[in-house]
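Training component of the fellowship. As part of building independent skills, the fellow (R.M.) carried out the full modelling exercise for a liganded target. The chosen ligand was guanosine-5'-monophosphate. The inputs are recorded below so that the supervisory panel can assess the work.
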Amino acid sequence: MNFLEERIQKDGIVKEGNVLKVDSFLNHQMDIELFKQMGEEWKKRFADANINKILTIEASGIGIACVASDYFKAPVVFAKKSKSINIEGDMYIAEVESFTHKCKNQVIVSKKFLGPDDHVLIIDDFLANGCALQGLISIIAQAGATVEGIGIAIEKGFQSGGRVIRNLGYRLESLAIVDSMDAETGQITFRQ
Ligand code: 5GP
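Fellow's submitted model of the complex:
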């Protein structure tokens, strides 16, 4: 088991509805030493990629993206969730359905901060059905920028997102892939 799998095994809580709670080290209280290990690992895995920007989505992606930014020496842009319809022309807009909150949000990024010269690493905390990633990929496409790679902390391998994103040809590096989890027993199995 790697460092993140060990931590999930120790402190992760399996909830009903295929939700893994990692509030004590990732989603609410944040373990910055762990985030540094994650940033270092992504930097190793994307060592050959030419990355000049990191894109994430609020809120939980921001902390890990900021720490990763220290390893890539690239600024972080986060997509903002906005309930209102944004008709201004200075924003890229995508629709994202929230897995955990079961609602639809528009996510927006200012055109000032993403453009054709950008080579982007997407960072997020979880990958479930891939909706958040598809929204971020759409925003990068609207900007004429390039997706160099995608770094995910925890991929739930029993949901479809990882397969879909890999089949689209993206370079996806998940630090922990959960193959199964059981809310009754609390058991979590990782992909080898
Ligand atoms: P997707 O769009 O891939 O279906 O879901 C990804 C987003 O939903 C992530 O950004 C994350 O915030 C949230 N999410 C999905 N599954 C889980 C989960 O099991 N636990 C937590 N804490 N968040 C999740």
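The panel noted the following from the submitted structure. The mean pLDDT is 96. The CA atoms of residues 116 and 144 lie 4 Å apart.
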